[in-house]
Amino acid sequence: MNRMIEKRWQFFLMISSLVIIVIRFLLNEKGRVSPDSIRYMRTAHVFPEIDNTTTPLGYPLAIKFFTFFGIQEFWSSKLIGILAFLFLLYFAWYKKFYFKEMILTLGLISFVSIFSFTLSETLIIPFVFIFLYVGRNSIIGVYTTKQSFIWLSICLLMLYNIRYSALFFMVATLLYGLWHWKKYFGKSFVGAALVGFLYVILYKILFIDAFNSQYIQQFLETGLHPFSSLLKELFYGLTTSFNPLIHMANPSGGPINMFIYGIGFFTIVVMLFLFLKFPISPTENFLLFVGGIGIVCSFFIQLVYSVDALDYRLLSPFIFSIWLVFFKKIYAILGRKTYAITAMSLLSCFVFTWLSRGNYLENRKEMTDFLKKENLLNGKIYFYTEANETVPEQIQMAEIISTINPWVYITHLPKDTLDAKVLTMSKVKKRTKIIKNKYQ
Questions:
Q1: 84 and 231 share a domain?
Q2: Which end of the chain is flanked by fewer CB atoms within 10 Å, N or C?
Q3: How far is CA 20 from CA 77, 190, 241, 338, 424, in A?
Q4: What is the pTM for the complete model shown?
């Protein structure tokens, strides 16, 4: 009877998570895309032409793959998110590897938001889980040293071809191998990490330099941010990422943010208590080590590399393994009551989505009609926005356009507005009626 009740809980949370993923992008004014999404979809659209090296080709090529079946780039990206979500559940169930914990983790508001977004995190997280599974099998002796070396190497290369931050998994693999050098699996970890680093060098020489020889000069720069401000952003990023009920703070500030950060900080304290209080298995040790190193590297890379402030999105590949271990520890104490945490997170996600809803399908229809009239439904589009972060409404309009015709380029040159072919915010706004998300 107890087992039946638990299965019902699991089924409810899996279906609810999937439904809210879909609702999350349909009830958003622009289908949950970002400036990065424009680049991903455009890269997929123009391939085999290479028009940027800011991101690896893994995610854009995955989007491109589904377009061969007649699915437009925007919907391809959403299909990838849904398939990634389903794959994680299936793989965890089939391999009997953190299945309960996977259900609990994927239902958190931060991960529901990730899988509803057009972002490469949707594709890398399944490969992170495969990497964790391979690492665990290497540690407990399921694989031989040679098999461990081969599979770990393949995983690291796959991860890097989706996101450059996979370099941090290589660092974690190297350090873990050196830490356990005298054990039978230590050399396979070190060897796989070295293969990964060699690939990064070759990738830079053969791909990045071939299409953008100035990449390093453009993105590497010391003294970008004061160390003190980075520490503050790290605190905000961790406390929102580890908040099971609300995954981002109010950009306008206010007392509500203290409440949001407080819940996240409390969760982190509970995590640390459980990890220190109760025995940690070799597998759990590996999962926590990889996640921790990823967070540390994500912090220090900001000293020399221009990236957004750390948040649930950028940290998701690394906090993923920590959530799995956390839920395993919590479940050992609370049993089936643990499912209530994810249920509350899903409820919070639905309420927030409903209260802040736009209507992507109506906006899509409105924008499609506009692009048809302008003969821009196909072909290259230039959209002017001011180079100013205080005018996000402009870039949001470009994001909506990109979900219909992804061949969009953003220009910040005022002189371009004199070109009749260049779209501007005022030109589009006069001829369309976009349903706004009042909290966007």
A1: yes
A2: N
A3: 16, 41, 19, 20, 33
A4: 0.94
CB 193 within 8 A of CB 171: yes
**Angstrom distance (rounded) from CA 285 to CA 263:** 25
* CB of 92 closer than 8 Å to CB of 329: no
Looking at the structure, tell me whether residues 253 and 372 fall in a common domain: no
How close are the terminal C-alpha atoms of the chain, in Å?
45
Identify the CA nearest to 328 among candidates 285, 371, 360.
285
The total of structural domains in the chain comes to 2
Number of H helices, E strands in the chain: 20, 3
**Residue range of the domain that includes 395:** 360-431
Do 365 and 316 belong together in one domain?
Answer: no
Q: What is the pLDDT of residues 169-210, one digit of tens each?
A: 999 999 999 999 999 999 999 999 999 999 999 999 999 888
What's the rounded mean pLDDT across residues 387-411?
84
- Looking at the structure, tell me whether residues 294 and 375 fall in a common domain: no
436 part of a folded domain: no
Q: Rounded to the nearest 5°, which phi and psi values hold at 171?
A: -60, -45
* Residues 147, 255 share a domain: yes
310 CB contacts (<8 Å, ≥6 apart)?
233, 234, 236, 237, 238, 241, 298, 299, 302
Give the other-Cβ count within 10 Å of 346's Cβ.
20
